[in-house]
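Structure ticket #2291
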Amino acid sequence: METKLLRIAELAKSNPKMKFTSLAHLLSKQALAQCHHELPNGKATGINGTTKEKYGEDLEINIEDLVSRLKSKSYRPVPVRRMYIPKANSSKKRPLGIPEHEDKIVQKGITKVLNTIYENDFLDCSFGFRPNRNCHDALKILNFYIEKRSVNYVVDVDIKGFFDNVDHKWMMEFLKLRITDPNLLRIIGRFLKGGYLEEGKKYITNNGTPQGGVISPILANIYLHYVLDLWFDKRVRKQCKGQAYIVRYADDFVCCFQYKSEAQEFFQSLKCRLKKFNLEIAEDKTKIIPFGRFAEKDAEQKGNSKPATFDFLGFTHYCSKSKLGKFRVKRKSSRKKIQAKLKESKEWLKKNRDKDIHKIMDRFRRSLIGYYNYYCITDNLPSVSKFQLRIVNLLFKWLNRRSQRKSFTWDKFNLFLNKYPLPSPRIKVNIYELRKEISYIM
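Resolution: structure written out below.
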């Protein structure tokens, strides 16, 4: 399959208008078995509760049966299991759709095919769920645009319930621009229409692509590639007299403009553009703010003490200065994300404080390492250090509640931390260090 995918990638790159007529045959026994092995262990199961380990016990028989159903066109995905996860600092919950393991295998195979074709089509402004690109790369290029280009206004946009409102008809039309294999399109269509099961009742889905599905990220990227990225690149930027840029990670994106009038015009036209494709912006979370080297002067003229800030990818971006007094964009961990992480840590400690102390400290060591890997970027070390201190305070509080008798004084607790040390934060990502893969965008 890998050799065939390389050939498809070459064809897709050499001819951007080429339509692929035969792709479903790539979902062969060997390819699907490989997809099974690549899927992570210990993940949540679908409505039938089939785990990767259980499916793998009779892997050859199961894969043969799956391929047979794919070839005879009798394969139908099982409805996903609907579950909810809490939203940060909100009483609302985010819906997830967990597919069956067999459906994850097929989705993984199709995702490989779609990535091979569309990776050549996606624009440089798109960073979400793409090979060799990540959140830090998006932050780096956004930082470059604001600091080094003529950016004076930022449009911070939030699409309301994007994954729940993807229009299936438009999705299929977009796919047909590159893929005309009816067999592959039929399978994708069945995933979109597969529905979900909640409290024993099946619900039909006429819109949306469930978060939690292996195929959802690439479908979201394809949808927004046509709805947003190409439109901004071919229409919006060409109509602007000043400079204009967009940085998108999945459905989260920020647009930068030189002139206020063009930022306002874009904001209004964006509403119409999204409405055409069954999407809308969340008015309460979308704003146009002065942001850049002149933002401080603008704030002073309006009688504000500080320029406005905006959140993107878990960081609050704010205007500041370097040690030499030059304009700089700085970032700190978003307060909303910090509060959510502390709440999660508190709830876990509250429920598990009676567990073995080694397991508790190991859990927090791993949790902090993961947190540092993402949030320890240029300028954010003070915020991360405060977060670590609050985690230490949480540990002191809840480890003292393991029994009716208080276990620690602060002196004893410091000795305890010497024996079971927590990792200390240090800068992991230099925001000014652009990788070769994205440096050409400049």
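Closing remark: The first strand starts at residue 80 and ends at 86.
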